[in-house]
Design goal:
Largest sheet: 6 strands, parallel
Radius of gyration: 20 Å
Strand content: 5-15%
Number of domains: 2
Distance between the termini: 47 Å
Mean pLDDT: 97
Bound molecules: NADP nicotinamide-adenine-dinucleotide phosphate, zinc ion
Oligomer: single chain
Shape: globular
CATH topology of the largest domain: Dehydroquinate synthase-like, alpha domain
Strand order of the largest sheet: 1-8-5-4-2-3
Length: 372
């Protein structure tokens, strides 16, 4: 059995974990920058808790709240210049995947005010990124326990980088922060977590441990997606379960990365404004069918472990997608599909899939789902 598992993140979860564990923050310096979106950190109560915790241990802080969904390089650069001016010694990201990924980029960019975009994405930096602390407010990306940062580049394309030094050193997970999340983002972020688990499980780079994380995540998510499909309100206990599942998904992809649903999903966010989870979830039923054909034994053992059938799992995904349709209402012409295909030549995530996942497969699947 071959394994290579590393998790430099101290993960602290539970109700009021930020205030209760304020002393842990003192390890990272005397000054920090808080990186957030426009409203989630305030609405969820996480910003209030974090600033109280920082005050409690005598750490000076400043706030950059200009991170947008699918964060841009330009916003991260702007935040990093504030971090440098302020003399921040560490970065605290508060929010969903967007502010958390942005915090990782700020931690890199703040080590050198002159660093350009190309260098940021290269993952080769002269200086070690500032320490990163994360507080999650969505139950989806698992960015709290991954080294990955997905940033929209200057050409409008989602592109990621990762390094051992961009794992958060400390992450807080208090499900009470996710109580204020809208119904549509609750669903789309849960689908994202499900994609992480399934894409990681059916990944050539998976190992025994990552598959355990993935299976546990899917088990919890199946229970919860049955609820989110019909219920408007979720209890704190439900939110805790969803949060926990998102962490399992994050742990799984921290080993393997993702597969074709994420690779094919990015353009749906960039060009059609689909929430990240929906953009990837649109392909999940196809991904499951693909693996049933290309990795049959693995597929059988997956469904034996997760306790639902292939049909039930696919139905749960569709029930939670916008308009209950895998196309999510997107329509593409043949020319639009052809224009996308160069993205899938030599794509690292596609190479990790069983069988042959390439531009030809992209053409087949995109045409099936979206051809007008
Ligand atoms: P998000 O883009 O961080 O947030 C979506 C929306 O929900 C925003 O409007 C946000 O408001 C709002 N929101 C967040 N938490 C809230 C709360 N508790 N109450 C009320 N509103 C709240 O969503 P996400 O799905 O978590 O993150 C998606 C991003 O993560 C994408 O860029 C994706 O590529 C990336 N991603 C990263 C990884 C990784 O491993 N690093 C994995 C998968 C995906 P604000 O605008 O005010 O924040
Ligand atoms: Zn994702």
């Amino acid at each position: 059995m071959e394994m290579n598992f590393v998790l430099p993140t101290r993960l602290v979860t539970g109700r009021d974990c930020v205030i209760k564990n304020a002393s842990l923050l003192a390890e990272y310096g005397k000054k920090c920058i808080i990186v957030t979106g426009k409203s989630s950190a305030k609405k969820s109560g996480a910003l209030d808790d974090m600033t109280k915790a920082l005050d409690l241990v005598g750490i000076e802080w400043c706030v950059f709240d200009g991170i947008e969904q699918n964060p841009s390089y330009a916003s991260c650069k702007k935040a990093s210049l504030l971090a440098i001016d302020f003399g921040a010694q560490f970065v605290v990201g508060i929010g969903g995947g967007s502010p958390l990924d942005a915090a990782k980029a700020v931690a890199v960019l703040a080590t050198d005010g002159k660093m350009d975009e190309k260098t940021m994405y290269s993952s080769v930096w002269e200086r070690k990124p500032l320490p990163i602390v994360c507080v999650g407010t969505t139950a989806g990306t698992g960015s709290e326990v991954t080294p990955v940062s997905v940033i929209t580049n200057s050409s409008g394309m989602k592109k990621s980088f990762r390094a051992i030094t961009t794992f958060p050193l400390l992450s807080f997970g208090d499900a009470k922060y996710t109580m204020s999340l809208s119904r549509s983002f609750t669903r789309s972020t849960a689908i994202d977590a499900l994609c992480h688990c399934v894409e990681s499980y059916f990944n050539r780079t998976a190992n025994e441990l990552s598959r355990c994380f993935a299976v546990r995540g899917v088990q919890i998510l199946c229970e919860m997606l049955a609820k989110t499909a019909t219920d408007d309100t979720l209890s704190y206990e439900d939110r805790e379960k969803l949060y926990c599942a998102s962490i399992y998904g994050g742990l799984a992809i921290s080993v393997t990365g993702t597969a074709f649903p994420h690779a094919f999903g990015y353009f749906l966010t960039e060009n059609h404004d689909l929430a990240h989870g929906n953009a990837c979830g649109a392909y999940l039923p196809e991904f499951i069918e693909y693996n049933a054909a290309n990795a049959k034994e693995l597929c059988d053992s997956f469904f034996a472990s997760v306790g639902v059938s292939k049909k039930e799992l696919c139905a749960l995904v569709v029930e939670n997608l916008p308009e209950k349709q895998v196309s999510c209402g997107v329509r593409l012409s043949k020319e639009q599909i052809d224009e996308l295909l160069p993205r899938y030549e030599n794509n690292a995530s596609l190479k990790k899939c069983y069988g042959t996942a390439d531009a030809a497969l992209a053409k087949k699947i995109l045409s099936k789902l979206f051809l007008a």
